[in-house]
Structure formats: structure tokens, C-alpha cells
């Protein structure tokens, strides 16, 4: 048995020589004759094209044998308030989180680490945002997803930036990225456009104890997102409940007849109450309106009967008025004919015309005079 063994190291390889579990030296590419008489000889080979010196004891080896590794390995270590952006030949390939130690083989690629202090300024710069969030190969990688919080605020919206549970900033529309290390970050969006709200199917008793089902519709707009964010957990639910209360309060103080006669008064009562309350929480109520007032079945039937009786009474009144007017006209006509024989005679001829228009044949006795004088008479009298 030979007292040595031959080890071949490829051009893309470096090897660490250990004897009796103690580091001896680094083996460069080529053929090496290793004496094994000392016993317990171990060789660890590394492919340096992977760039990263992946050894669990790398930090210890470099600390205890720094001079031996100085020409071969470059080290990078992040503090607790730093992150590192690791570039290989000018391309961003990895993110080093705070406290990370990295060792990389020299001489294969041009690599560097850009350090970013995130102790105070934890927002990504536009350059970093473009690299890490907008279509870069790293943008959907696990290391990026765990390192940054990315959000886009749409037009006519604002973002509520909360850091460690505290509201820090109101963000206008745009895209934003934040480092998540050492802090908890969230962004909630608020819609600043005019929005609608529906309060439907509310069963409410009027002042005269009639049960109604009412549907209410309205529109509102957030005017102070800071107040909405800090004072309200759910602004739409808050506004819905307030409208419910104002509607019940307004309906309960009016009778059914009053509500049916003037729905606008109900709208005014609700709007007056809700405007001031909503303004305290940064919300402007633009409009409020009752869409439907639905009566129960029996009350609807009673009201239909009332309306029918009213219309029938109005019809009878009009009929009597017309009959009275007609009788008065007839009376005036009779008085005129009484004092004017010629007018009476014209009326008789008019009646004769209407009679002859309805029959085919007339038998006349006494000649033309009988036709003119005896056939039609409106009152007793002697023929002239």
C-alpha cells in the first residue's frame, strides 16, 4: 500500500485538505500527491463556478485561517439593520437579509454586494423597486417575496401605510415597495370616489303603529382618509348602521298619512341627522333618498278601498254638478221659448227633423200644413 494518494483538482475546482479533522491548506487545480501516513486524511472539493463558498463552517475557517483563504474567498456580512443586494457580473441575483454572512470564490465572476441600511429608510428606491417588483426575474422568487412588501395604489384611491400597527403615512396613487425585515408592514386602500349605499327591507312602525317596509338609497364620499383610518374599523358598516338608526327615528315620529303625502320630508329628516354624524368621521354624505315604502297586504287593501270610495264620491259630485247645470240650461231655454213663439216653432221643426231622420216612411193627412203644424208640437195649442 502506497504511503500517499493522488488527487486531481479540475480547473473549476478548489479543494480543502483536512488531516485528522484539522485544516491544512487549499489545493489549486492540478494533480496533488497527498501523504496518508498521518492517517484520517479528508479532501473537500468545491465547484467555484457556483461562486458561493457553501460550507457550514465557512465563517470559522475564515476567522481562524484568514490568510490561507485571503486569495481565494471574499466575505460579506450584514449587520442587523442592513440588507445586501448580491450582484454577479452586474446582475442582481439574491437578497441577503440582516445578519447574513456570505463567502464567495474570487476570480470567476465579478461579484459585489450593495448594502442598504433599513433602520430608518425602509422604503425601496425607484431603482430597487424596478429591479425587484416590475418584471425582474427575481420579482416572484421566494427570497423577494419574503424580503419586500409591494403594493400599487389605483387612481382615485389612497393607501394607508401602517408600520408595526401604527398609521405612518397616507399614500397617493402609484407603486410602492418596503423592506419587511425588522418590522410589520401593511397597506390598506381607500376608495375616494363617490360610492353608493343601500339600506333595504327595513321593517319599521310609524307613529300610528302601522308596519312599513322601507328601502333607502344614498351616496357618500370619503373626504378625510386619516380620520376614517384611525377612528373606524369598517366605514361602510358604520354608515349603514347610522342610516338604519336615522331611518327608524324619522319614521317613528310620523304618521302613515304624512309619510305617503310627502316622502321628501322623510329624506330631509334622515339627511339632517346623518350629515353631521358622518362628518365627524371624515365622510361626506352626498345624497339620501327613500326609494320604496311598501305597505303590508291588509293595509294596502284598506287604502285601496279608501281611495276607491274617495274617487266614487268625487265622480258622484261631478255627475250631480253636471245634472244641475243641464237642468238650469233647460229651464232657461223653456223661459225663452215661452215668450217667443218663433223660437218655439224653430224648436218644433228641429224636433221634426230628428224624428224624420230615424224613420223610412211617414203617412201625412191634411197636406203640408198638417206636416208643419200638427205632426210635432212641443206644447198644446191651436194650429195657425
Describe this structure in words.
There is one protein chain. With 384 residues, this protein is α+β, with helices and mostly antiparallel strands. Among the domains are: 76 residues, no CATH class; 101 residues, Tetrahydropterin Synthase, Chain A; 35 residues; 45 residues, no CATH class. The chain contains eleven helices and 18 strands. It has a three-stranded antiparallel β-sheet, with no helix packed on it. A hairpin with a 2-residue loop joins strand 7 and strand 8. Helix 6 runs antiparallel to helix 8. The mean pLDDT is 84. It comes from Litoribrevibacter euphylliae. This is Slipin family protein. It is found in: Membrane. Belongs to the band 7/mec-2 family.
Number of helical stretches of at least 4 residues: 11
Give the overall average pLDDT.
84
The third-level CATH topology of the domain at 195-295 is Tetrahydropterin Synthase, Chain A
Strand order of the largest sheet: 3-2-5
Q: How much strand content do the residues show?
A: 25-35%
The share of residues in helices is: 25-40%
- Helix-strand category: alpha+beta
Q: Sheet with the most strands?
A: 3 strands, antiparallel
* Number of E strands: 18
Corresponding CATH architecture of the domain at 195-295: 2-Layer Sandwich
Family: Belongs to the band 7/mec-2 family.
Subcellular location: Membrane
Pfam family, one: Band_7
Protein name: Slipin family protein
